[in-house]
Amino acid sequence: FATQSNKLVPGLYQSAYSAASNAVFVTSAVGRPPVTQSQLLKLDPKSLKVTKAITPAQVPGSTNGAVFAVYGVGVDDANGNVWVSNTRQDTVAVYRQADLSLVHQFPVGAVPHARDVVVDSTHGKVFASAAGEDHLSVFDAKTLKALEPITLASGVDDEKFVPMSLVLDEPSGKLFTVSIGTPEAAVIDVASGKVDKVIDLGNSISASGVAFDAERNRLYVASQGTDNLLIVDVASGKVVHDVPVGAGALNVAFDAKSGLAYVTNRGAGTVTAVDRDGKVVGNLDGGTFPNHVRADGKGNVFAVNKSRGAEDPKGDRITRISLRQP
Fold first, then answer.
1. Which segments within 55-173 are labelled E, that is strand?
2. From residue 210, how far is each of 12, 15, 252, 318 by CA, in Å?
3. What is the CATH number of the domain that holds 318?
4. What is the pLDDT of residues 166-200, one digit of tens each?
């Protein structure tokens, strides 16, 4: 594997690559509420250097300096925007990709415990996971108006499907999410806004990460409580591989160019590469508390990690990972 890393700012959370801007957008937020230190960063994907950085606005009426701290991030290349989740204020916001100027701040309470956000340019919709509830919030990408939410009903008696990560396969019009509260994944048709199916994952506790292999129609699910990566055949709903990857398997990205899934293991401090047959082909140093990984569609994935403090040399870093060319 070929890797390049750069130290950024404290509290790194997620990243997203924009093909239109040829930029990586990274969110950061430090500590527990009131969160007063947060930044949205724009990076050059080659050098990993920051080209623009902003601090979100202070929450109106706040007496403790709390800002609309940014966590989840998704890019809207059709409209030149970048969407973020403001988890602590239960809402989302939209910024301009070019200069990170604020386009729209949704009101407090718009999305309960907002986590991930993805943009479907084909249908002009934006989806945000309400990790505090059992639904996905939906917005119009152009008008920025709230649309009808998508309720996720659990197949487990008396339990709630609590959505975490989101991954969109735009060509097929399918959106996927996993539940941290139940061992389940959901397949959603974005055109109709209806749930196609809910898949029983079996050996999964506290699932949080999800990725998709369109070529094989397979879902990759990372679960924190079982320290594993499940590879699931979407058509049959069957788990075809159950791969131990490391303590606290938190997030996963699939790189179609190499056919590898990359898992950030927060507890183990590793990024594990797994092939389509469920074989571990790489176990890379992920630094302190690997938090998130995202593919750029060009053979690279970007992993971000947290730190044990300002002096931690292995913390607060973004790392670009790709297969080394022979």
1. 73-76, 81-86, 91-96, 102-105, 114-120, 125-130, 135-140, 146-151, 163-169
2. 19, 15, 6, 20
3. 2.130.10.10
4. 999 999 999 999 999 999 999 999 999 999 999 99
